[in-house]
Design a protein that fits this description.
This protein is 44% helix and 20% strand. With 372 residues, the chain is an alpha+beta fold. The two termini are 17 Å apart.
Length: 372
């Protein structure tokens, strides 16, 4: 085996070990452990598949080359079978090279959190009511995209503006069934974090002038279970209050809204969509765990080598990642250079090509960083 692919050997051994562990019924008694092992097993399955494909293609090319060389050394004449094999040799070598490239790609360390579900937070930014209306457009875009992917969505909390937009909104996006990590919700939506800018004539504009406004998107990976992110009771302050609607008017006569403050980090989460205080608290705890997990993962990424960090993804709302230009029906991603004139389709959930450009740019950057 080529030294270039020696890195695959421990991963193949780990895959075999995980297969044995996952066949043990006692492992499945701990659902959290079983999910984590299953996620890693599925991730390594890509490496195993790519390795076997490369190994088979490489063996075919080498065997053909040896047979052609042996026939030449023996001084055989133009044997039809050997001549046919010699003619096939370039294609066999090309197939082996292509399989080698695919193996290199899957050997680039992937994001171990790709299979996670996510919580999307969308907040209106510059532009007042127009920004809030754009936040509602983004929410609809993500819901439609999730529908196309076969995922489920749940609106956790939302603060509406006077004109029917959203000052802020939180959406949980969940895969209905477990699949390969590269098909996970986080694998696709992690690239959406940042500032989304819109250029259009606002409904409040009387003279038809084009305005620019923006909304911020934050993407949080969800914790698999409560044990993954432990929150001590003494670290939590719980406040209850009456929920309110647009303009600040009260929409509930009971103290059902909940505000959680995580004292060690200062993270604050408020929930008021549900009528039950218990339901609001459960939803707030869900978001709080996601925020704490995101902070932990970002801290880990900060100390990781550049080759292991995403070159594209950012959850920093200060980074302008995309422009939605209504007059030109244009969508442009500033990180990848992607541009298309089908904004209406993208806003209706056809987000796949835009996200694919981010995935491809990320993979190319990591390949370059790893020296492959």
């Amino acid at each position: 085996m080529s030294e270039e692919f020696a890195v695959a050997a421990p991963l193949l051994a780990e895959h075999a070990e995980l297969e044995v562990r996952l066949s043990d019924p006692s492992v499945h008694a701990d659902q959290g452990l079983a999910r984590r092992l299953g996620r890693r097993y599925a991730e390594l399955g890509r490496v195993v598949g790519a390795y076997r494909e490369w190994h088979a293609a490489d063996d075919d090319a080498r065997a053909a080359a040896e047979l052609v060389a042996l026939a030449g050394d023996a001084g055989h004449g133009p044997d039809d079978e050997v001549a046919e094999l010699a003619a096939e040799l370039p294609a066999l070598r090309e197939a082996a090279d292509a399989a080698a490239l695919r193996l290199r790609r899957v050997l680039v360390p992937s994001d171990p959190d790709d299979a996670r579900d996510v919580i999307l937070e969308i907040k209106a930014g510059e532009g007042g009511e127009e920004s809030a209306l754009f936040a509602a457009d983004l929410l609809r875009m993500y819901v439609r995209y999730a529908e196309r992917q076969g995922w489920s969505t749940q609106l956790l909390t939302a603060t509406e503006s006077d004109l029917g937009g959203y000052k802020d909104v939180q959406l949980a996006v969940k895969a209905r069934t477990a699949g390969p990590p590269q098909d996970g919700v986080w694998a696709h939506l992690k690239y959406e974090g940042g500032v989304h800018r819109v250029q259009r004539v606002p409904v409040t504009e009387s003279q038809g002038r084009i305005h620019t406004s923006a909304a911020g998107v934050l993407v949080l990976p969800e914790a698999d279970d409560e044990d993954e992110v432990t929150i001590e009771a003494g670290d939590l302050r719980v406040d209850v209050f009456r929920s309110s609607g647009p303009g600040g008017q009260s929409v509930n006569t009971t103290d059902s809204a909940v505000r959680l403050t995580h004292l060690p980090t200062g993270i604050v989460v408020s929930m008021q969509n549900e009528k039950s205080q218990l339901q609001n608290k459960e939803a707030a705890m869900r978001v709080l765990r996601a925020r704490l997990l995101a902070a932990r993962l970002e801290e880990a990424a900060a100390v990781a080598s550049a080759a292991r960090r995403s070159q594209v993804r950012s959850v920093d709302r200060s980074e302008r990642i995309r422009t939605y230009n209504y007059p030109e029906n244009r969508i442009a991603d500033h990180r990848t250079g992607y541009k298309a004139y089908n904004l209406d389709a993208v806003l209706d959930g056809d987000l796949g090509p835009v996200i694919a450009s981010a995935v491809e740019a990320d993979e190319a950057a990591q390949l370059a960083a790893s020296g492959s």
